[in-house]
Amino acid sequence: MIQEGKKVILFDGVCNLCNNAVNFIIKHDKKDSFRYASLQSKIGKQLIAEGNIDTSRLDSILLITPKKGYFHKSTAALHIARQLSGGYPLLFVFLVLPKFIRDRIYDTIAKNRYKWFGKKESCMIPTPELKNLFIDQ
Q1: Nearest-angstrom CA–CA distance, 1 and 45
Q2: Could you list the pLDDT tens digit for every one of the 137 residues in the chain?
Q3: Which of the listed residues 20, 36, 54, 132 has the most CB atoms within 10 Å of its CB?
């Protein structure tokens, strides 16, 4: 199901911002570190259940790593940025900010993401070229 050593990003599959973020991550993931699944997918729900994740606290992104477990909200975003090409790993320095400050900013964006960026009727379907990056849904 999940390739050994790969990190999994669970995202809101109907959120335009989240889908654009996944496309951005794919473009900048030169080390091929990540695999993807929507929160709404069968595998997404299974991984959430296995991790005993409280979905009432889950807004739009969850990072599952083989060694360190589950990260969500701003912590997930910063751990993802750390793996990307270019200058994006420099964003990891913001991890020194208190989590409640980082997550307040994250929560504001997450709360307004449908209003600001729109919403799809269904989860995105990856192109044939990208299909191998997505966990079987």
Answers
A1: 14
A2: 667 889 999 998 888 888 889 999 999 999 999 999 988 889 988 888 888 887 776 666 899 998 888 999 999 999 999 999 999 999 999 999 999 999 999 999 988 988 998 887 766 677 777 788 888 64
A3: 36
Amino acid at 38: S
Please tell me the pTM assigned to this model. 0.88
8 Å CB contact between 72 and 57:
yes
Rounded distance, CA 113 to CA 10, Å?
16
Burial class (CB in 10 A: 0-12, 13-18, 19+), 136: exposed
Amino acid letter, residue 25: I
